[in-house]
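Postdoc handover notes: sequence design on the structure in folder B. Input tokens:
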């Protein structure tokens, strides 16, 4: 049998499901897409500039960066996770030094990151407000619901 996660071990019948952050979902989506872009960018730099840089260096930096983008998804819930995401946006823009098209691609991803974070925060705030209002309504009408 598969090993249970902490959330699965702590679950009890009747427990409300913990709401996932929309901000984290949007940010994770952008970071994972960027990881793929970095991998394809690595192949591009290898194909166009293998005479200028050692292939081992190209692939180790490219794969390392792609893994960093993917693993950053795991720390987005920490206070410094979004800041790390912003740093990675700057890194993606700066890869334009090696492949000029990446200035545009990095800039577009930075806009997507900003929009995802901003919109995710707004949606999370609205969802929390909706949950508070629902809880207040449920508490005020608890007697009617039990009948």
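Designed sequence:
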């Amino acid at each position: 049998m598969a090993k249970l996660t902490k959330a699965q071990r702590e679950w009890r019948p009747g427990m409300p499901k913990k709401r996932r952050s929309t901000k984290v979902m949007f940010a994770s989506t952008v970071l994972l897409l960027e990881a793929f872009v970095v991998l394809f960018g690595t192949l591009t730099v290898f194909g166009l500039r293998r005479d200028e840089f050692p292939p081992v260096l190209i692939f180790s930096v490219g794969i390392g960066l792609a893994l960093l983008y993917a693993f950053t998804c795991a720390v987005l819930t920490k206070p410094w996770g979004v800041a790390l995401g912003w740093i990675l946006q700057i890194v993606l823009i700066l890869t334009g030094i090696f492949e000029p098209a990446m200035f545009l691609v990095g800039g577009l991803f930075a806009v997507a990151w900003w929009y995802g974070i901003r919109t995710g925060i707004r949606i999370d705030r609205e969802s929390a407000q909706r949950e508070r209002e629902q809880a207040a309504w449920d508490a005020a009408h608890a007697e009617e619901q039990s009948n």
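Context for whoever picks this up: The longest helix spans residues 101-140. Don't rerun without checking with the PI first.
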